[in-house]
Amino acid sequence: MQMIKLYVLLTLIAETCMSLPKSYQARFVSWNSTGSVVDFRVRFLGRERRLNGSLVISEDLDSKRFTVSAESYSDVSGGGDYKLMPFSMPHQSVCQAAKNFWIYFRATLKYGVNTDIPFELKPCPIPNGNYYMKNASIETDDWPYIMPRGFFKGVATFKKDDIVVGTQEVVIFIEDRTP
Ligand SMILES: *[C@@H]1O[C@H](CO)[C@@H](O)[C@H](O)[C@H]1NC(C)=O
Ligand SMILES: *[C@@H]1O[C@H](CO)[C@@H](O)[C@H](O)[C@H]1NC(C)=O
Ligand SMILES: *[C@@H]1O[C@H](CO)[C@@H](O)[C@H](O)[C@H]1NC(C)=O
Fold first, then answer.
1. Where are the domains of the chain?
2. Is the C-beta atom of 30 inside 6 A of ligand 1?
3. Which end of the chain is more exposed for a tag (fewer CB within 10 A), N or C?
């Protein structure tokens, strides 16, 4: 009983901390989408480089055939020397990944507000469709407290029946938050 109470308390503290403002802010630099099954077609609007465009999913992504993994890299100096970071996503079904990792993106792409991408609803299979993303700036609310400054790149590799069908390569720029 005590253990459960302690656990609940710690979880509450952790969740409260997670939502505190971060010391950094981030904006999009580039988004390189290759392959066909999961295709982000985006452009960036304004000086804040807000994300706009669509996500085209051409097949229902069931939990057996469609998998994804991801790694991240940091380039603090901007010289193009990207170093592997400990933030990664082990190879798993796209359904499972959406369940486990959407938390990092849900403040940026808010279902029913600036997107109709349904990951928030944890569907499985994830239905094929042409989803919109409108004018989204990066919200770091659910991100780690400490992030390296400079260029940060996420690379996600999608597979169908264990064969690579596409990659998503997203570069963002992280800097100290301006008041
Ligand atoms: C886009 O990503 C693919 C796959 O990782 C890579 O081969 C290609 O060089 C990238 N293109 C650009 C413009 O970065
Ligand atoms: C932004 O994306 C929406 C949804 O995909 C699209 O209708 C709109 O034309 C886009 N706006 C710009 C300026 O690209
Ligand atoms: C996009 O968002 C910015 C900042 O939140 C806002 O100033 C701008 O009016 C929005 N543009 C559109 C087309 O909604």
1. 2-176
2. no
3. C
Distance 68 CA to ligand 1 centre (A): 17
Output DSSP code: residue 75: E
CA distance 163 to 137: 33
Tokens read off for 51: 């994300």
Measuring CA to CA, which residue among 19, 54, 24 is closest to residue 138?
A: 24
Pairing of strands 66-75, 89-93: antiparallel
The residue to mutate among 44, 50, 113, 114, having the most atoms of ligand 3 within 8 angstroms of its beta carbon, is 50
Tell me: the pLDDT tens digits for 75-122?
999 999 999 998 999 999 999 999 999 999 999 999 999 999 999 999
Is 147 in a helix, a strand, or coil? coil
pLDDT at 1: 47
Assigned architecture for domain 2-176: Distorted Sandwich (2.70)
For ligand 3, the distance from its centroid to the CA atom of residue 113, given in whole angstroms, is 13
104-115, pLDDT tens digit by residue? Answer: 999 999 999 999
**Which of 152, 153, 155, 154 has the alpha carbon at shortest distance from 175?**
152
